[in-house]
Amino acid sequence: MQGLMMDTELQISSILRHADRNFGDREIVSVTADNPLHRYTYADCFRRTRQLANALGNLGLAAGDRIATMAWNDYRHLEAYYAIAGSGFVCHTINPRLFPEQIVFIINHAEDRWIMVDLLIVPLLEKIADQISGVEGFIILTDEQHMPETTLKNAISYESFIGDESDEFDWPVFDERSASALCYTSGTTGDPKGVLYDHRSTVLHAYAGAMADTMALSSKDCVLPVVPLFHVNAWGVPYSTLMTGCKLVFPGPKMGDGETLYQLMEQEEVSLALGVPTVWLALLQYAESVGKKLNKLQRTVIGGAAVPESMIREFRDKHDVVVMQGWGMTEMSPLGTIGTLKYGMESLTPDEEVSIRAKAGRGIFGVEMRIVDDEGKELPWDGVAYGSLQVRGPWICSDYFKLDGAGGAHTDDGWFDTGDVAIIDQLGYMSITDRTKDVIKSGGEWIGSIEIENTVMGHDSVAEAAVIGVAHPKWTERPLLIIIKAEGAQLERDEILGWLEGKIAKWWIPDDVVFVEEIPHTATGKIRKIELRKQFADYQLPS
Ligand code: ADP
Predict the structure, then answer these.
(1) Shortest CA distance to 108 belongs to which of 85, 129, 88?
(2) How far is residue 423 CA from its own chain's centroid?
(3) CATH says 9-253 is which class?
(4) Is 194 helix (H, G, I), strand (E, B) or coil?
(5) DSSP for residue 481
(6) Residues of the chain with pLDDT > 90: what percent?
(7) How many whole angstroms from 228 Cα to the centroid of ligand 1?
(8) Gap between the Cα atoms of 312 and 359, Å rounded
(9) For residue 95, which atom of ligand 1 is closest to its CA?
(10) CA 115, 120, 126 angle in degrees (round to 5)?
(11) What average pLDDT is seen over the chain?
């Protein structure tokens, strides 16, 4: 027997309509290339979003056509998110930090018809314009007054594009499984692969992100997403926050600037900020150097890479800020786990609490997890066994865009193989020990490079650390520790190796240490291990 409930499509435009009705006077504050501090309300935002939807309707596009955005976090980018998806087109967010050849590849692969581009990113597109000739025109995210001289074809300022349009628009109703957004993985191996989100997955993911044991969003919050709108839906923040009526603060092109972030947090009374560990390093360094405390911030979600314990302690001890570590990936929309505490954890000592928060977090309803061994046999959640981490659920990709099953990441029984190696403890908290391809194989056993890096990052004289496997005649591979010293710090090989004793398994202690000025990163701020492995391919470990 079927139930008797309404069959309402879960659509992104329904979030906007709800927010408009209930929180019309809530503020959105942005730093942009053409305005140091722009302020308006949800109601203003949605009026302009409807104008943009009308303007897009004049372009002769068909449902499902891709319109790309290449922009920093600000109000116009948010309007683009909602107008494109709400109209039935696909919002293809492009990471401007990718290599130009990757950008060319993904624009052509996605068959983007128009691109909305930030003022500051125009020169980057001009350089590759002749290789993306399928793009019909460019909307520059600025007003007429700030319009640059540009060689981009059919270039128009955003404000002129929407200016004369009506602000009445009836959001079309369509199948909730229609594609809404597209984001490519940064492709550390091979070409980038497209992950195609839909309305249903996005709405369900937004609910999950807002829950009390996830980000605990409420209309009383003021949220600063430093995680970029150009990568993985900014962790779903543009949807979860509007669903719940949070005030939003966007840092625009100032994402990596500790001073601007600090000022925005204080002045706008930001209660929750989200970003990758590197961004928070910049913020904490700024606060330390000028002797300031974060007075307003209450909590922060940090993910995208492992969060060093030292960062969790610094946020707590110096700023009274709670760190919630998250784990996920482009293929997962991205939320998979989040490190909030469980019932019965009220009486943990501060150190015990840090060790829980240093894990990648526990599963969110909607994401099933399992760890398996090389034969695909499921491993126990005992805090000891480690294996390939696999997931399934309604916001996890079932295939890559236009690859027709050739992506190679899905198992025969319908799980997605994340490419991460993980341990899950009895309470369900998961820790990433490595990426499958970065694992160090020493004498038939695996050494988790991430765990060593996290420990090393706790040393005061270390600014950044990476651990890679280097060929060894007896053990196949042994770990090499690569370190950037903190500014002005003195540190010797034997000192750091001695310091590691007792903190990690004896046989995990690296065989050697090299000090460098720079460690290569991917466009999303992760250490480029492939590059490091190449760089140190012929490294001779001391015998
Ligand atoms: P990319 O941008 O490199 O294409 P994603 O942004 O999708 O990829 O990154 C996903 C990967 O980032 C995960 O598979 C995992 O390896 C890493 N990652 C994310 N969060 C964490 C975390 N909390 N701890 C350790 N690794 C993490």
Answers:
(1) 129
(2) 22
(3) alpha beta
(4) strand
(5) E
(6) 86
(7) 14
(8) 11
(9) 2
(10) 55
(11) 95
